[in-house]
Amino acid sequence: MRKDKVSEAVIRRLPKYYRYLMELERIGVERISSQELSKKMGIKATQIRQDLNCFGGFGQQGYGYQVKMLKKEIKDIIGLNREYRVILVGAGNIGQALANYIGFEKEGFNIVGIFDVNPKLIGNTIRSKTIMDIDTLHTFAKQNRIDLCIITTPKENAQQIADMVIGVGIKSIWNFAPVDVEARKGVFVENVHLNDSLYTLVYRINEQEGMKKRECLPAKGGE
Amino acid sequence: MRKDKVSEAVIRRLPKYYRYLMELERIGVERISSQELSKKMGIKATQIRQDLNCFGGFGQQGYGYQVKMLKKEIKDIIGLNREYRVILVGAGNIGQALANYIGFEKEGFNIVGIFDVNPKLIGNTIRSKTIMDIDTLHTFAKQNRIDLCIITTPKENAQQIADMVIGVGIKSIWNFAPVDVEARKGVFVENVHLNDSLYTLVYRINEQEGMKKRECLPAKGGE
Hints:
The structure is a homodimer of 223-residue chains. The first copy, chain A, is α/β, with parallel strands linked by helices and 223 residues long. Chain A is built from 9 helices and 9 strands. Helix content of chain A is 43%, strand content 17%. In chain A, strands 5-6-4-3-7-8-9 form a 7-stranded mixed sheet. In chain A, strands 1-2 form a two-stranded antiparallel ribbon. In chain A, α1 crosses α4 and α2 packs across α3.
């Protein structure tokens, strides 16, 4: 009997399971087989069963999965059954959009502090939260428990902000600046690169329009 | 000599190459070996050479890659050397943030139309573009060439909007609604799920805090 640690790939699939199960629950589906779920999600049924077995299985042979129950289990496994205290650094377009998005609050993500360097923004409020001077972040972090920092600064400032928030003891960073932020071991970073998916889309548009005829040659090595 | 079609994985890595090369150019690096690039990007050097060989190579043995030249080549390969006419459907928080983001315009993405169903939003402007009634989208699409549609509606409306814009001949969809939008063959869809990376982060926070002890058991099969 294997006792593997839950792999990166499995962890990355959990939000997708959660998303599909929420949608199934919303449209009134009560139970689903791994085969049906497989067809919907584009993940092999054996993969689904193996993934869910990392956390205890939840399915019954010949019956499938109870949608509501499995959704709740995956919600708990991800850790969406508690509150997270979040700060946001960078109150520009994307920062404001995230701070305004009430969906996060519903899921337990409470934005407890918003910071910026811009004097024109400092003092403004977003959903009754005052935008604070980045210089006050250190003191704020000492006085408040913070679980997560969202970085929505320009790319030039992202690493510096990351270093600063790691310095005050914050262990998780959700970075929207278009640069890969690096952190020491024990700090978790998710770099969101919105443009990457846009560029993939654009590549396909051009590929379809026949502007590119491509073939892969073997690597020579040594470049 | 292989003549493979460029694989999905290679296409998905192109934006990452572009991002790193832009950053290298910004900090003044003129040339880089595949080994150095490998270390920075966390992609094997052989993989980098093989990927770039799909498009002609660009490297010189013992010299490496010219950063500026390679960046330009990859920019052209992705298709960022032309203008794209974009419409945006859903002028809520994320929609407004994307419409306000001038970075897209700099890269050739021109938002030519913004649409919503909300009478309170219709008629407002975002960067001098008037938010139009979704009912006028059909006529607008007939009169204007549109390369790409950004969907930033609630999840309940996303598929319906996708079907509508595909119906008027739009071939590419960049979807931010938290549901996988489906399309017929020949239409390209990129579903952006911001929450997925947030949930992955949250899973790790809880894993570290020792709230979960997990091991993977082999699948039994048949659920």
